[in-house]
Amino acid sequence: LLLLPSGQLLTYRCCHLSLTHVSTWVCCEPTMTGVRFKLCLVAGAAGLCAGENLSPEWQAVSKALDDYFPLKSFAFSAGNASGTQFKYSKGNVTLETPMYMASSSKFPVATAIMGAVSDGHITLQTKPSEVWNWWTTDPADKRSRITLETLLSFTSGLYTSDAAGDLPCLSFNVTNYSAEACARQIYTNATFAFEPGSTWDYNSFHLQVAGAFAAAAANTTVQGLLHKYLIDKLGMTSTEWAGGANPYLAASMTTTGADYDKFLHAYTAYTLVPKALATTMEVDYLEPPTQISNASTYLVDILGHYSFCNYFECVEPKKAPFTPACKAANIHMDAGLFGYYPLVDRANNVYMQIVQTQIVEKTTDLGPTIAATVLRELVKPLVDKALGIPDDTATPSLPDMPYVNRISTRTTELLAKISDDVLPFSPTAAALWAHLGQRPTHP
Predict the structure, then answer these.
(1) Cα–Cα distance between 258 and 199 in angstroms, integer?
(2) 277: which residues sit within 8 A by CB, 6+ positions away?
(3) Residue 246 in 3-state DSSP?
(4) What number of helices (H) and strands (E) belong to the chain?
(5) Tens digit of pLDDT for each residue in 125-144?
(6) What stretches of 103-221 show up as alpha helix (H) in DSSP?
(7) What pLDDT was estimated at residue 403?
(8) Alpha carbons 213 and 232: distance in angstroms, whole number
(9) Distance CA 88, CA 169 (A)
């Protein structure tokens, strides 16, 4: 509680940070106001040490995040090419909390690889056989036609029946595999089901080969590639990929919301990847005649089309997996299985991220992802308004209806796109909320 000189009493949620010789209480989000304060106790002396006034537009964003009952602990940030414009935390998660990123690991890896492209070490048309002498050049073998472009767009022909891929060299732990040895294991043992460039299948194999391939072309290690073109370049001091010399590129990133915000800002501002290459990374690689594998159709139905390790987002209420409205919106995101949801709105050069880690046991447990997707649909129009985005390019609001009904309707619509025998809970909003351990608390 904070009693102001005016006599007004404000209620805060606070978290305590213990530092060397300093005890700090960080307090934010006073009830029913738009004022945020940081109240500090430094060496035993109390005082108001910082404050900021939120505009009514950002107050609306904060309220929407507060009100979203399916998620009790997460952080959030939003910004544009000028930098971060808004930060938020709820429950026991802040932008400094370590996060397991799952599939949200992919997009940053792709930008690091594009750094090697920018420096001229490799091109998008380079074939693995131009770097490794063991990769086939036989025209009768479709693997000979794989390129870096087909690997990054997940159209290399590699196929798995799930959204990952299971081989001994793909591990979250340090193994005795080198990156090249893992690429060779994929080359030898994985299923190459399709002609390169013809069919999209979402799995971890493509990126594992692409990273090893690009690092070899740049005469560095995969970890060296990640550090040179991403981690060190942006000062992402809390970021790493597990796996040692053979990091599991598609899923083993650990980071913080603060570090990922650096990535989103740099990518949005074209300071991480030049505009020409970023534009290539945002091409819709699922346009006809590209086919979608039977194992990955549900992902397109829920999330949209695919570019270079990022979804060409299409999650608004829609009558088809991908619509002209989604194409025009030009929003790219890299949602992760644990509920992390970062996006870049390229039409308006703004970004936002929902920062959370909710560990699930199966790749088909999309509970945290769907809960984050619905929150994104609720909050993105408000973020656009707060950032001053014109109405003609801003994300439209969801249809107006009672709050719980609106969340329930969108959740149920998304769940309906997934086969009942895949989900670990029944396809209803109430079942998903129970699965997440939550229940409606908003009138």
Answers:
(1) 36
(2) 114, 117, 118
(3) coil
(4) 14, 20
(5) 999 999 999 999 999 999 99
(6) 106-118, 148-152, 179-189, 205-217
(7) 86
(8) 21
(9) 38
